[in-house]
Design goal:
Blueprint (H helix, E strand, L loop, with lengths): L3 H17 L8 H8 L4 H42 L4 H16 L3 E8 L4 E8 L4 H4 L2 E3 L3 H9 L3 E3 L12 H10 L3 E9 L2 E10 L7 H63 L4 H12 L2 E6 L11 E4 L2 E8 L2 E9 L6 H41 L5 H10 L8 E8 L7 H21 L3 E5 L2 E7 L6 H16 L3 E9 L6 H20 L6 E3 L5 H6 L6 H24 L3 H10 L4 H8 L3 H15 L6 H25 L1
Parallel strand pairs: 14-15
Antiparallel strand pairs: 1-2, 1-6, 2-3, 4-5, 5-6, 7-10, 8-9, 9-10, 11-13, 11-14, 12-13
Length: 640
């Protein structure tokens, strides 16, 4: 037998083993069988040589199969990336394939959080511990934190015995819960920036080979590309969505701008041809496709000046000028109104205020004439009634009908400057004149306020007219206006002298309202009961004497005592009644000791008599105190 024959024969069993892909330990069997059969040494040596060659071939085939599987997995990953739709699904596939090819029990991927400055779990495969799946690793902490910080791969065959890593209780607890021992981590990088870490791990000791580290690095590169691609797609989608939204806004704005231009042209033409407020409302109704109407100051409370506000399903914008509320434009049945249409409504309100001011300016000359006629009625009672009637007729006023004289005062703050008071008086006169013109009456500025002569309608009363006038003027000026009314003057043109007396009565009513703490209201003498009887005399001056006599009879001794001694008994009486006749509360109101109150009440007992606190006397004393204060106020007013 030649040397080649045994050599050739020795290779046959190994070719069969290679052909069927037998396990590595099966390659020992031919040698063991030959040795058991007593084969010569040269045959055994040939078999050993053939076994070595066969094992090398087997290892080469295994490597090629493994590389083929790796390349196939990488190809499939690249294919997934090409059709990327769901980032989470792609990352899960990468982690799953890495676990399968490396033959590890667990694979997972973490991403860096630049805001928190750490890295967190994003995808896991084969994990069973909830604590592990929620781990966050600080930069430099644990194996993953070190990979994220250094951008280099790290592997350990026994994590808990490896001193290279910064062990923390949180990380070690999570790894221990998962039961991991051997861990390999490679960085996910975009350029020079690390965005996360890809891991493969086993629950037993294991040495990761260089080829395995390189393979996991390839998967990490694909994962980084997937994340970058997904981010770019998300940014692109967001940009497209924003662009589409911007296009929609531009289209909407174009329509709104056209409407705004249309209403501007209409309002300009309307003003130039002398249109009125109803024309403005009609034009805006057409442009805004709604129903717009104007409400005067009585019909609509003042709102935010110059700004449209929503009230239910309506939009309201105040029509104002110089701080005076003239009314409002109301757009009905438009719960949703974009900002440009709101500005259109606001612009219409401004044009409305200009038209109202223009109309008012045209009427100011007429108002001055009305004021001059009323001044003549007040100051020159000997005027020819025929001439008065003619002047009134030109102003569309009928001075042969019953009228009421009203005195109006604006209630400005006590600390108001002289300029403020002057401006308030002008505003009051302007609003009063407008009211008189629309009501076929007269108005004039007088004694720091405004006096009006208004017709008393059939079935009306002076008190009702006073309240209505106070409400109207207060609403127009957005300041409390107090209005006092006289009784009816039957025919002012026939009895001019009666107008002056009625004006004094109206002024006394204003003083009484302010004294009684009812500033901003309207009233006539009939509203004050017994006090009204004293206010509403027959206009021959007798009430003044009646008031003075009543006050003197009731509290004259106390008033005289205060005047002689400079004491404060009248004020003490006022406070005592205001505090419910309680000395304890009275001393707090006067800021004095309770003994002082007792001493003053003793003095009042001696001056008025011990029964002054009985119900009948107490009522008279309180009324006398009011009348005394009213009389003092009138005296002060007359002095000024």
């Amino acid at each position: 037998m030649s040397h080649d024959q045994p050599q050739s024969g020795s290779e046959v069993p190994y070719l069969e083993l290679l052909a069927r892909g037998a396990a590595a330990d099966a390659y020992e069997r031919p040698v063991l069988v030959a040795r058991a059969d007593g084969a010569p040494p040269e045959t055994l040596a040939a078999l050993e040589t053939a076994k070595m060659h066969a094992l090398r071939v087997r290892a080469e085939l295994e490597g090629r199969r493994r590389r083929e599987a790796e390349l196939s997995a990488l190809y499939e990953t690249a294919h997934d990336l090409a059709g990327l739709r769901d980032l989470d699904a792609v990352l899960a596939a990468i982690v799953q394939r890495a676990r399968s090819l490396l033959g590890t029990e667990v694979a997972y991927l973490s991403l860096n959080d630049p805001v928190a400055g750490d890295t967190y779990m994003r995808v896991t495969e084969g994990s069973v511990s909830a604590r592990f799946q929620q781990l966050r690793l600080g930069m430099g902490e644990g194996l993953g934190g070190l990979v994220a910080q250094t951008a280099r791969p790290y592997a350990t065959e026994s994590y808990f015995d490896d001193p290279r890593f910064q062990h923390t209780w949180t990380i070690d607890s999570g790894v221990r819960d998962e039961g991991l021992v051997a861990i390999l981590g490679v960085p996910l990088t975009l350029g020079s920036q690390v965005i996360g870490v890809l891991f493969a791990a086993d629950r037993r000791a294991r040495v990761f080979e260089r080829e395995q580290i390189a393979l996991l690095g390839s998967f990490a590169a694909h994962a980084a590309v997937a994340i970058d691609t997904a981010n770019l797609l998300a940014e692109t989608r967001s940009a497209l969505a924003e662009l589409e939204k911007a296009n929609e806004i531009i289209r909407d704005r174009s329509g709104v701008i056209e409407r705004a231009s249309d209403v501007h042209d209409r309002l300009t033409e309307l003003v130039l041809r002398g249109g009125g407020v109803p024309d403005v409302a009609r034009a805006v109704s057409e442009v805004l496709h709604g129903n717009v109407d104007f409400r005067d100051a009585d019909g609509e409370p003042a709102g935010a000046e110059g700004h449209a506000v929503r009230r239910g399903d309506d939009w309201v914008v105040s029509v104002s000028a110089g701080g005076e509320h003239l009314g409002a434009l109301v757009l009905h049945g438009h719960p949703e109104l974009d900002p440009v249409d709101q500005r259109t409504l606001e612009r219409a309100a401004m044009v409305t205020s200009l038209l109202l001011l223009a109309r008012r300016s045209a009427g100011e000359a007429e108002q001055r004439v009305r004021g001059e006629l009323l001044d003549d009625l007040l100051d020159a009672p000997d005027r020819d009634p025929r001439l008065l009637r003619e002047r009134a007729a030109r102003l569309r006023a009928d001075l042969d009908a019953p009228h009421v004289v009203l005195a109006a005062r604006i209630e400005a703050p006590r600390e108001a400057s002289v300029e403020r008071e002057s401006a308030d008086r002008r505003r009051l006169w302007s609003a009063g004149s407008h009211l008189a013109a629309t009501g076929h009456g007269l108005a004039a500025a007088r004694d720091g306020g405004t006096v009006l002569l208004l017709p008393l309608g059939s079935g009306g009363s002076a008190a009702a007219l006073a309240r209505q006038t106070a409400k109207h003027l207060s609403g127009a000026l957005r300041e409390p206006v107090t209005v006092g009314a006289s009784g009816s003057v039957d025919a002012p043109s026939a009895r001019p002298g009666a107008v002056a007396g009625a004006y004094e009565e109206a002024r006394r009513c204003v003083d009484a309202l302010r004294l009684l703490g009812r500033a901003g209201e309207g009233a006539a003498a009939e509203d004050f009961g017994f006090l009204g009887l004293l206010l509403a005399d027959s206009r021959d001056g007798r009430s003044s004497g009646a008031i003075e006599g009543f006050v003197n009879r009731t509290i004259g001794e106390v008033v005289a005592y205060d005047r002689r001694r400079g004491t404060d008994l009248v004020r003490t009486l006022d406070a005592y009644f205001a505090c419910g006749m309680s000395p304890a509360r009275t001393k707090d109101a006067l800021h004095v000791h309770v003994n002082t109150v007792a001493q003053r009440l003793d003095r009042i007992d001696r001056l008025l008599g011990a029964d002054w606190q009985s119900p009948e006397r107490a009522l008279e004393v309180q009324l006398a105190l009011r009348l005394h204060a009213l009389s003092s106020a009138m005296t002060t007013r007359a002095a000024h």
